[in-house]
């Protein structure tokens, strides 16, 4: 063999090996539930994709097969809580369509999230060293701690070249890319996050898996007719416009071909014009299930006639949310269009990352106490970017309110209780984001076009007119048989808890099995409300801790091993002592910290070291993971009550646990 040929062979072999490494990242054994209370980091990452040959710019992170029939552009924000909820769903898509989909990440760092753009910059800097998805997971797992210091800390944990990472953080090209992607997102109508273009068709929000599946199935069918002759970008160019002619081509051009994004046209003021331009709107597929949403005609803030209305729209909203302003505008158009046939009920849902939202809600309630709720409502939405305390007082004066009474009511703890009650009521009927509507109990999420509201309203008016009924009595009849919170799934799973730590009465009628990870931030939120529920149901509940350390949490398995040795040495008491210490120091976990906490809990360190070496605890924990996988555990925390999956819509609260325990006791 000639020297030149030998060198060429070596080079080619090296490139092939490199490519194989890029393409062989494993999918972990766990996937995400449709709407599990976990971030994308609570499930294993899908494979990474090398951009070359796919038509995707190298600067854009990609995962999935380069020959996929379906390309999903995920437009997201690392500080957006709703974005963190779609990770399990995306993971489930990869498990369901391992060869048919790929996901391309695009940034839309919303301006009211002050740490979103720095986080996006850190992720893109990590991408330059091949670790975007690993940094992506860490950012979502630690949404409340997106500091510059942590970005560098996590870069170190991922083994990045820190000098290069620091240089890339300051590179204006990354900032330009993030800004350009946001501009592109706005230009194609994806103004909120998360948003997905599935072969060119827009799906907005953290929607259930079935909604994604429906769109992916349709996209696959549409792409198959081109797949024999087209791949990569060519396949995208063929299928995106077919799925949505108005947007598909723009998505390809703006995100993948470098065309300068052109601002989207302003929203049309006329619902009739919109319908004429885009064809008749249809109610979303998930809008036909009816929720039992109570309306209190004496105490609720209602716009419309309680006696004449054929349709009731209950709106959960946030005065600082830019999309809620659009939702409010849609309600104005609905009232103008339908008059007394429709009434609107306002419910408060101030999001925790909107610092002015709750004071604004309190101001609206205080104005309502003097008969001026809707007038204040309009002022708040008209000035949603400047909800200062000074302005709240100023607008109260403009409305002619008694300022002393206004201030007294908005600062009254009872007013905050009203807001909290609205939020809790929303949780009972599946409300998670804003704006969120229930139209005669039927769900509609987001700032949808007026035509979509009209499509549902028209169906409900037809039902009422056919029945010859109206008003509050008709509304109660319509929603009376609707659903409310369904915390416990019907399926009963057999769970072998042999050898696992527990607390409570051994023969208690209710057994709660918690699959958990000591490094998972969401798992740390379960213990206190569960303890309160146990105290309220003394003697009735046994809580079993089931280990489910996630592969990308480096200290989760070592922590689990330490607790199992604590169980072996000191029984349940020593286990729970170490359990509490680990969760209390969750953000500081390291091998040294775990040892220090184990020692503090009374663990014999020599025996712990021996247990680590013989691997018996790790082998046992892996069997527990297999038990979890067999019954459908896909992330952490996952809770089962008497074998039934517990999925609280309003979160793991003492009341939610209490209600579920009561239901389980009756079974």
Feature tags:
Glutaredoxin, 3 domains, five-stranded mixed sheet, 667 residues, 25 helices, alpha+beta
How would you describe this structure to a colleague?
- The chain is an alpha+beta fold and 667 residues long.
- The protein folds into three domains: 24-256, Glutaredoxin; 273-480, Glutaredoxin (3-Layer(aba) Sandwich), CATH 3.40.30.10; 502-666, Glutaredoxin (3-Layer(aba) Sandwich), CATH 3.40.30.10.
- Helices cover 49% and strands 11% of the residues.
- It has 25 helices and 15 strands.
- The chain has helices at residues 3-23, 87-96, 116-127, 132-141, 148-157, 162-169, 172-187, 209-227, 232-243, 248-256, 271-278, 322-338, 357-368, 373-382, 389-398, 403-410, 413-428, 450-467, 471-480, 527-536, 556-584, 591-600, 605-614, 616-631, 654-666; strands at 62-64, 70-76, 101-107, 195-198, 201-204, 301-303, 311-317, 342-348, 436-439, 442-445, 502-504, 510-516, 541-547, 638-641, 644-646.
- Strands 1-3-2-4-5 form a five-stranded mixed sheet. A five-stranded mixed sheet has the order 6-8-7-9-10, with helices on both faces.
- Helix 2 (87-96) links the parallel strand 2 (70-76) and strand 3 (101-107).
- Helix 13 packs antiparallel against helix 14 and helix 13 crosses helix 16.
- The longest helix has 29 residues, at 556-584.
- The radius of gyration is 27 Å and the shape is globular.
- The termini are far apart.
- 47% of the residues are buried.
- Mean pLDDT is 84; it is low at 1-53 and 265-279.
